[in-house]
């Protein structure tokens, strides 16, 4: 996410350059150590204008990062749920195989799961699911998956073996979690800059008020 | 967090130092964290309540019945004992998470309180650290 372009042009009395890879090149704001000095060299009006502009920019970046954080916060539980589901299907499959084997050993006729028998579909079994067909509309099915399909995006869905699917989903989950962490750190940084901008503005303003009051007294 | 315009009678000659600025930033950061942690905590508590309800309902079910439970987006059937174990496991996970969040929140509130008294001592009512 390249938010700021080349940051070389940003450095001045108000902002300083960051390492190019830190916080997407967003410059850090300078804390005014010497308010009278800054005001003397730039003028109150110019200072406030510039700080206000910077404040707006940081606010804009903040909203961008808040949006991407919200998207990631939604993705993480989605991946977790998908992983749980694949693991569950896998365990059900294993159980079904066990039952089938026991039945086979006893010489019982092996039932065809998901057959045409109406009785079967009415009697829930371990591999029966009620799935959402449309909003608030559910249908019953018996599933016997040997693989799962993962929506990769861009209108592409790919079939995976269980273990491969879990590996892929887990790596997606890790990626989402680490970018979430990165975004949290960027947000902390940006919010710090917003605070510094606000405090700088207040200090410039108060300095101005004070100078004017003193001038009035004289 | 915003320092308001100083009224003449409140005017103090306090210089804001870099370390004060760091304290202010830290306070703002903690405030955000407190809001986020509080939000997560409420959601986890609600989820735990739902699991409790589910566990209570399960007691009423027949032992040899297959009960429905949510996996991902679908309802699956499983023996009662298995679902009970699943819910118990989830509950334990949630309880641990809640205890952890509670501790985090307490630490945040504690540090905020310290920063608050420190900053108010220096800036008096030229600074406003209450939530707007």
TrEMBL record, chain A:
Any GO CC annotation of this UniProt entry: cytoplasm
InterPro entries: PFD3, Prefoldin, Prefoldin_subunit_alpha
Residue ranges that the Swiss-Prot or TrEMBL entry lists as coiled coil: 166-200
Domain of life: Eukaryota
A Gene Ontology biological process term: microtubule-based process
Keyword Transferase: no
Molecular function via GO: tubulin binding
Region of interest (Disordered), residue spans: 99-121
Keywords: Chaperone, Coiled coil
Pfam families the record matches: Prefoldin
Family of the protein in this entry: Belongs to the prefoldin subunit alpha family.
Quaternary data: Heterohexamer of two PFD-alpha type and four PFD-beta type subunits.
Record function comment: Binds specifically to cytosolic chaperonin (c-CPN) and transfers target proteins to it. Binds to nascent polypeptide chain and promotes folding in an environment in which there are many competing pathways for nonnative proteins.
Protein name in UniProt: Prefoldin subunit 3
Automatic annotation (TrEMBL), chain B:
GO molecular function, one term: unfolded protein binding
Example of a GO cellular component annotation carried by this entry: prefoldin complex
Gene3D superfamilies named among the record's database cross-references: 1.10.287.370
Chain coiled-coil ranges: 80-118
GO biological-process terms attached to the record: protein folding
Record bears the keyword Chaperone: yes
Highest taxon of the lineage: Eukaryota
Entries under InterPro entries matching the protein: PFD_beta-like, PFDN4, Prefoldin
Chaperone listed as a keyword: yes
Keywords, ordered alphabetically: Chaperone, Coiled coil
Family of the protein in this entry: Belongs to the prefoldin subunit beta family.
Job description of the protein: Binds specifically to cytosolic chaperonin (c-CPN) and transfers target proteins to it. Binds to nascent polypeptide chain and promotes folding in an environment in which there are many competing pathways for nonnative proteins.
Subunit structure and binding partners: Heterohexamer of two PFD-alpha type and four PFD-beta type subunits.
Protein name from the UniProt record: Prefoldin subunit 4
């Amino acid at each position: 996410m390249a938010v700021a372009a080349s940051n070389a042009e940003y450095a001045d009395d108000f902002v300083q350059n960051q390492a190019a890879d830190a916080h997407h090149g967003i410059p850090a704001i300078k804390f005014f150590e010497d308010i009278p000095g800054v005001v003397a060299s730039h003028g109150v009006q110019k200072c406030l204008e510039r700080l206000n502009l910077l404040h707006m920019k940081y606010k804009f970046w903040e909203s961008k990062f808040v949006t991407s954080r919200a998207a990631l916060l939604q993705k993480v539980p989605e991946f977790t749920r998908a992983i749980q589901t694949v693991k569950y299907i896998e365990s059900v499959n294993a159980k079904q195989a066990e039952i089938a084997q026991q039945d086979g050993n006893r010489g019982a006729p092996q039932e065809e799961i998901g057959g045409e028998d109406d009785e079967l579909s009415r009697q829930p079994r371990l591999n029966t699911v009620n799935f959402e067909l449309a909003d608030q509309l559910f249908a019953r099915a018996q599933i016997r998956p040997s693989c799962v399909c993962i929506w990769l995006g861009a209108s592409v869905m790919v079939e995976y073996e269980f273990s491969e699917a879990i590996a892929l989903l887990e790596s997606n989950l890790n990626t989402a979690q680490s970018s979430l962490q990165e975004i949290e750190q960027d947000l902390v940084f940006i919010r710090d800059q917003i605070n510094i901008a606000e405090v700088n503005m207040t200090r410039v303003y108060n300095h101005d008020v004070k100078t004017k009051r003193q001038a009035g007294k004289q | 967090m915003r320092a308001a315009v100083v009224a003449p009678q409140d005017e103090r000659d306090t210089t804001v130092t870099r370390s004060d600025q760091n304290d202010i930033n830290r306070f703002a950061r903690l405030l955000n964290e407190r809001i986020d942690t509080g939000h997560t905590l409420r959601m986890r508590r609600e989820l735990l309540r739902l699991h409790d309800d589910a566990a209570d309902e399960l007691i009423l079910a027949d032992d040899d019945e297959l009960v429905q439970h949510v996996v991902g987006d679908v309802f699956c059937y499983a023996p009662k004992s298995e679902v009970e174990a699943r819910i118990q496991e989830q509950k334990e996970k949630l309880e641990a998470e809640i205890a952890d969040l509670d501790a985090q929140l307490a630490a945040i509130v504690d540090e905020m309180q310290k920063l608050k008294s420190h900053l108010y001592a220096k800036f008096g009512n030229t600074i406003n650290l209450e939530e707007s």
